[in-house]
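request received
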Amino acid sequence: MTTTRETVLKIEDLKVDFTTNSGAVNAVRGVNIHVDAGETVAIVGESGSGKSQTMMAAMGLLASNGKTAGKVVYGGENILGLPISRLNTIRGKKITMIFQEPMTSLDPLYTIGRQLAEPMVEHGGLSWAAAKERALELLKLVNIPEPERKLKSYPYELSGGQRQRVMIAMALSNNPDVLIADEPTTALDVTTQAQILELLADLQKRLGMSVVFITHDLGIVRRIADRVYVMRQGEVVEEGETAKIFAAPSHPYTKMLLDAEPEGHKPAVADSRPAVIEGQKVRVEFALGGGLLTKPFILTAVNDVSLVLREGQTLGIVGESGSGKSTLGRALLGLLPAEGRVMFKGQQISGKSRSELRGLRKHMQLVFQDPFGSLSPRMTVGQIITEGLLVHEPSLDWAERDRRACQALEEVSLDPAMRNRYPHEFSGGQRQRIAIARAMVLKPELMVLDEPTSALDRTIQKQIVTLLRDLQAAHGLTYLFISHDLAVVRAMADTVMVMQHGKVVEAGPTEAIFEAPREDYTRKLIAAAMLETLAA
Amino acid sequence: MSRYVLERLLGAIPTLFLIVTISFFLIRIAPGGPFDLERPLEAKVMENLNRIYHLDEPLWQQYLIYLKSVAQLDFGPSFYFRDFSINELFAASLPISIQLGLTALALALVVGGVLGVVAALRQNHGTDYAVMAAATLGVTVPNFVVAPVLTLILGVWLGWLPVGGWNGGAIVNTILPVVTLALPQIAVVARLTRGSMIEALRSNHVRTARAYGLSSWTVIVVHALRGAILPVVSYLGPAAAALLTGSVVVETIFGIPGIGRYFVQGALNRDYTLVMGTVVVVACFVILFNLIVDLLYAVLDPRVRFD
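response:
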């Protein structure tokens, strides 16, 4: 980057404050960012670092309780605080944006064609007919299959990846100078994520706009950004060229972020160990739709999957959304009606009634993905943790239950004094620890962990992985670890099973799968996760 | 779509049958009969009357006779208004009630909708608080208070409007009853619109519309309001059925010959056929408006499909 390029967008000393019931929140505290023509700038940070709010403020999209100070200069003019009608001659035309939520960012009530055409009619002065024609070209540009049909489709008829492509097409429609991409791939599967990133990079090369990429994922930054801003608590703590930052980070926070990739791996357990859970030809089918007269569509979510999980083992089940991995986990625990045979420690549990299974539930616990939705907001942490004891060990008195709750909290490295607080007072990582404590208090033998780290920041993920591994070593636990995140699975599991469309694609020891995958699909997943080009 | 409408209309037949059956026997359980006056009639006269109106036959036979005539859309003779059939009474009064109700409905939708949108756009500002306070008042003050107060101010003190009467549906005569009917509906529509509009304005796709520099009109009306109006539509279905079938209070206070009065008169006088007739008419309106709401939903929201 020796050539000096013209700066297209310059953010100077930007501050964003939100007035809330509990006082003012300084979300962004004096940020300076500049974007040069044709370059890709990444803004990196964990949730709450103010990276999204910085760009939202620049675009005049803050919530009504947000206040800004500072300058956002575009085309020699401070666009911060411009009247909306003036601002609307820039946003959507010269500066465009794509968002994190492809599922909800398009209006569900209008066709793709109409939504794509709207900004062109508004800014480009095109007629609706001409705009629709151009919309078709744009859909071809972003490689959407059957673009003619998609033009007349509604958003609900498209997948997440396709919707994000539509958003990109919309962003490109008026040949913008700057494209702001706010976590555009976070909600997508790894393989889709890789395709969208490639598309963005390719389009940028061809069309020459600048891209501001907001993300928490350093893998993406390394792959696409020319320069990086690292944000933390509303401030830029470090900035510079990508290569330099990755090679020699100067700020301790950047070092911590770079170091946040989960590490280590788990040695395999001997085949001689007794099986904890064993599934033979497990099959789950869902009937979709159908009424009195119409036949329902049968979806086979899990298609004859067999597996053995031995004491102390961690089986990582990997797959993209809709692959049936969570359904399999639930079917093994008898939480869903399933065909096939499931044995828990030599005892058949498939086909048993709920009340017959109740006694065994103590030994099989489940931790969910969403640390916000899976804890009752109306119970204290202590009540949440000890609720299972009321069922499984009803003879315990209150004092003993309280003692066990303290013990469980200590085990997950939380202060036992916190047991009288409510879940909303905790961060995502702490809540996931509480969910783990709730499972651990029953001293289970098998834990099904359903994407326990997916909703967490990388640095927190690493801590949870370490915690889970420590607990396993201390108590000889057996884990069924469900995840779409290959980096986490590699660090957690000793055996891996790759699933696609309800079937097992490939299974084997973790190292073998990652070092020498046999199947194309596995290779594709690994390549996408490691963000290597798919060209090979 | 036409197949769906046909299916729904056919599905209404068993519903109506049940309603007719239940209300037929319910009204017969009530003590007294249509010819029980304060001064009892002569036994001979009573006997004649009972024979003419089939009241001397067993109840199940009366039921079958009634079912047969209803199936031919004949609601029978009135027991109280002896020179008229129920069909004649309704033919004269129902159009009046429908005209009043439709006008009130349109007024409620337009005024309530606009107030709701304005309140949502000014959320937690003076305008918002004023609209919501007025809406609370509109819901809580009953129409038998609103009607006399309006009559007193506009009719008696200012003398701008007639205090009652129908006068062949002259516009000046309809203003007061329409406003009285519409006020509580305006309040409810404004509240509903405000609530769903606030949600819609915060939604991601409205953020997209803003980010793409679309005009405020497009953002608010095209992208936010179309989705936000859905809950209002589902409220207005049953509300319309209630409005169009008349209001006892409004029709009595303003002396309007609508169908609403017949509910009370029919029940008090044990006018069996009149009660049954009003029940069937109301049921038909409810069924019809629920169907209209469902069709409107599909027009507004492409995700709704009839299969």
